[in-house]
Amino acid sequence: MAAAETYPDGLRYNAEHDWARVEGDEAVLGITWHAADALGELVHYEAPEVGTAIAKGGSYGEVESVKAVSDLISPLSGEVLEVNAIVVDAPETVNDDPYGNGWLVRVRLSNPAEIESLLDVEAYRKELD
Amino acid sequence: MKLIYEKSRPGRRGLEIPKPDLPVPAIPAGLARKTPPRLPEMAEPEVMRHFTELSRRNFGIDIGFYPLGSCTMKYNPRVNERLVGLPGFRDLHPLVEDDAAQGALELEWNLQEILRAVTGLPGVSLQPAAGSQGELTGLLCMRAYFDDIGEGEQRRKIVIPDTAHGTNPASVTMAGYEVTPVKTDARGNIDIDDLRTKVDEHTAGLMLTNPSTLGLFDENIEQIRDIFHAAGALMYYDGANLNAVVGISRPGDMGFDIVHINLHKTFSQPHGGGGPGGGPIAVAAKIDPYLPAPVVVRDGEGFRLDYDRPKSIGKVRGFSGPFGVFVRSYAFMRAWGPGLKQMSEIAVLNANYMRVRLQGAYELPYDRLCMHEFVLSARALKRDHGITALDVAKRLMDFNYHPPTVYFPLVVPEALMIEPTETEAKETLDEFCDAMLQIAREAAESPDELRAAPHGRPVERLDEVRAARNPIVRYGFARADDDV
Amino acid sequence: MSYTSLTDADRDAMLEAIGVASIEELFRDIPEAMRFRGALDVPPALSEAELTRHMEQLAAKNVLDEVSFLGAGIYDHYVPAVVDAVLQRGEFLTAYTPYQPELSQGVLQAIFEYQTAICELTGMDVSNASGYDGATVAADVCFVAKATTGRSKIVITEATNPQVRQVVKTFARGFGLEVVEVPHSGGVTDPAAVRAAAQDAAAVIFQHPNFFGCLEQAPEIAAAANDAGALPVAHVDLISLGVLEAPGNYGCAFAIGEGQSAGNSMSYGGPHYGFLAAREPYMRRLPGRIVGETVDIAGKRGFVLTLQTREQHIRREKATSNITTNQTLLALAGLVHLSLLGPQGLRETAETCMALSAYAKDRLQAKGLELLFPEQATFKEFAVRVGRNGREVTRAARTQGVNPGYPLVRDYPELDDAILVAVTERRTVEEIDRLAEVLAP
Questions:
Q1: Edge-to-edge strand order for the sheet containing C254-258?
Q2: Is the minimum CB–CB distance between C102 and chain B shorter than 8 Å?
Q3: Topology, domain C67-78+343-439
Q4: What is the pLDDT of residues A14-36, one digit of tens each?
Q5: Per-residue confidence band for B483, with pLDDT thresholds at 50, 70 and 90
Q6: Neighbours of B (≥3 Cβ pairs closer than 8 A)?
């Protein structure tokens, strides 16, 4: 069942509709409700390999629905520690729970200063309007 | 309906093969097949019935109106099917010496001459197998030209409008170029101010369809031509919409250097459920040396294939091209003669007539004369009644129409792109417009019923998510029959 | 007057509704400098009877040999009448690409059945709905191999069809790929030479049976490619797969080829269809359309185009290919032919080709001619040395009503006294005897 529209407080966002949950020197990344809703029900997650270096603003993978493909634009730079196997097996988890079980990758941050340039939920909401 | 594999029974057979009384040589160990392929085992009557049954679950131009924008679904003349079956065409091997293929070569020459006349460009290659292959061929010729004049390294970019068909950027990537997108303005033309910022000495060329996928002739085409030629760049014409301008405006006169023609659109090659097609290209004299080899040339009284083309980009398809497609297109052109101009006039007349009948009930994003096609938006229906372009499309099936193109071009939300072509009678256009108007009323009065469309088809709306998530792309054999 | 209904009354009513005085006004957006004001320089219009006469005259200028052993990639196999009958169904012939599945279950199911047949024959997991021909699918696979492996070199055997190699080289440039050929030796390819060449290659393409008709050491070549980390691509003949092992069963990543031998007339080179099949890991990178099975909202089985996100209309500049129009109708012809044959009929066709070509080899040798590659096992084609320039011998033979085959000098200058003789199930013992008479020194 697709989730209702929400944008949690404790997360940081970028303008490309990706979110980050910072946990010490690591972060968990995913896509927002808005992105999941625009794509429609996801059918495929092309995930990066563990150990890959990803750069802020760069693409680290793709998600696909029947009718669309979207690059995943990383809000932060770092090294991929873990890929969410639940989403690889059942991509629709992102639509059902975009901020919880629908997380995409966990990374070790290489440049924590980048966090400052991300949007908080208020600023992200303004982007959506 | 059962799959042919589900109808198969061991021991049945549809075709006998001559078996000479000769020994069969052994196949070396390690190369021989161990398990037979599980092809159907059926007698001829069952095979004929299976495919007939399949065909009756399919819609074609022969069945009804098929107004797909930019596809040019015109009537496919039946005499052409007879002509491709003439043994002198059907049984000719492509590698015979030229003296044995003079009829085929003369046909190809004549076809090239007509394409020269229609495009206003002198160099022609018939080789590309489809429009998108024509695009790639044209772009490779462009690369060869710039390399030859020493500008290959500097020119890496192709400008493409945001209304472009997806093949354009895909072809650009395959040719090793980069896409530079340019915006469309409120009149539906390329945004000239945006264009000026996008064209410079790094630009190789423009890819443009004119009229565009909006069905609109670009009002700024002269300025566009001047901008590109001043920058030393080339202009590529996507011929998908050529049906609007044959005998009325020639791409060469619009300033284009390379043109591809879709023989399966403008010149009636049947679409065959997805193909075959033909995508010949016509080019300006300076691009001619780079065309794929061989090229058909006159040789005294006869014709031959000229392979001596040292600057050619090479070969893009086997032999001289899809010859059977040439036979049909050439026959179509000979049936019209110079009257091909009337073909385009009627195509444009039909489209404008439908536009004025529908523009009240549906939003017309670009309120100007259209050419052979036009784009409506169902945005208001979605906003007010929750009815989308997709819903309209499915409901049209209940009236025995194939829907128009939907959700393209991308610049129009809830787009419906309608191209009637010249082979439709006025009554057909009126009846289709009546159906569209009725659907607009249903959107307001009974949207839930509308959304249940289509009815009475072999299947209802299909679960495309399931098909993409767990693709089943071949019959599994091991499963039990699950036919319904 | 061609295929339109417009009467004067229609035109007048429509112009009035549109609000313009004449058809000419509908073109007022076109700048005058770009208006073509003359008459198109094309010959006058023909009625159907006149058109037919003109086309019959053209067809009559083509010379069909009484007996032909010409092959070299396009073959004179028998096309059953049911194929023509099915292709003439207007619902197949005049249909568009099946983007609206409720109206296109016929074409979609037919393509699904075709995909299944190709997978069965090649031992692969997924097939696309067809490519343009046997040469362009080789270029397609190079594009996929580069994207999959990240490598920029393609290895292709010299014993692969010359047109396939030419087309690969033409497109390799745009794809940013280097193409390296592995020479043949004695009409076949040495797997050790492949292994050496395939270091940092994205793919190794090898034809089997090869252009000379010889059987390659296909499993060893595939292994050599795999050892080097390159994707093995077998370019194969559908008829041969009735008796030869499927490429998917000896380590190939892809199987491609020219489908014409199943279901298509020769038709001076086209239209035909290229087939492209792959192992499961490459499914999402495959170019071209793919039909998948699903269910509708009532739970009924149905078919749709699937994995469309690979394709140009969605992925645009990042698409796996720009292909849109393909060769569906010709692939359908292939499916019909294969369905009539079944596994037994396909095997018999292959065996008849082999039996007759073995007989041809014997008869020619009995007349004192030498085989070019006598050591090699062949399938339905073989090369014979005719003592002098192959092209001249061919011309002379044709004056006696027999086309002996393809002079190899046209592509391999060093093989100038050899002719490639193709023997399909349509040839007879009498025709082969006649060939031997005509070629005898």
A1: C126-127, C274-278, C254-258, C231-235, C203-207, C153-157, C178-182
A2: yes
A3: Aspartate Aminotransferase, domain 1 (3.90.1150)
A4: 988 999 999 999 999 999 999 99
A5: very low
A6: A, C
